[in-house]
Write a structure and sequence with these properties.
alpha/beta, Rossmann fold, four-stranded parallel beta sheet, two-stranded antiparallel sheet, 40% helix
């Protein structure tokens, strides 16, 4: 759903399962750290608000968004119930944006379909910095909140 029609931080709290005992892995890209750090903060606070203990959240960093694939592939092998992949790619002057976005999306989708642990897609892909800022706690909410809610809803498949 286009975020211009839906605030990323708006959700029905009653529809979110209690996260007590849920072990969450988060792989976050260091590239565009101002954005990914805010997305991580949103995910962490939403997870804890819904009962996930901070000790049950394992965070690993990777250099860029493309590396989220490898990071998530390793994280699913650990003792977690769900993995959230967080990254941000902002369009530049070359086709690099298209390749990174497509490759990362395909890689994460493949993991999500083939592993026994859900992999939540938290990659934001924007045309400019303002769009990214709007999606990491700005005018359109925080994609990290949305990822955390999705993670809790998907973790019940492993119960």
């Amino acid at each position: 759903m286009a975020s211009k029609y839906h605030n990323l931080s708006d959700y029905d709290t009653n529809s979110v399962p209690n996260g007590k005992g849920t072990r969450v892995g988060i792989v976050v890209s260091e590239w565009n750290k101002e954005i990914t750090g805010a997305l991580l903060d949103g995910a962490m606070s939403t997870l804890m608000r819904h009962g996930v203990e901070e000790a049950d959240i394992r965070v690993k960093t990777v250099p860029g968004s493309f590396e989220l694939i490898y990071g998530a592939s390793q994280m699913v092998k650990t003792d977690v119930d769900v993995v959230i992949a967080i990254g941000c790619v902002i369009r530049g002057d070359t086709p690099h944006f298209d390749y990174i976005c497509a490759g990362t999306t395909q890689g994460l989708a493949h993991l999500n379909a083939t592993q026994n642990v859900p992999v939540i897609y938290g990659l934001i892909t924007t045309n400019d910095m303002q769009q990214a800022l709007d999606r990491c706690g700005g005018a359109l909410g925080n994609k990290g909140d949305e990822c955390a809610v999705t993670a809790l809803k998907m973790s019940v498949f492993n119960s």
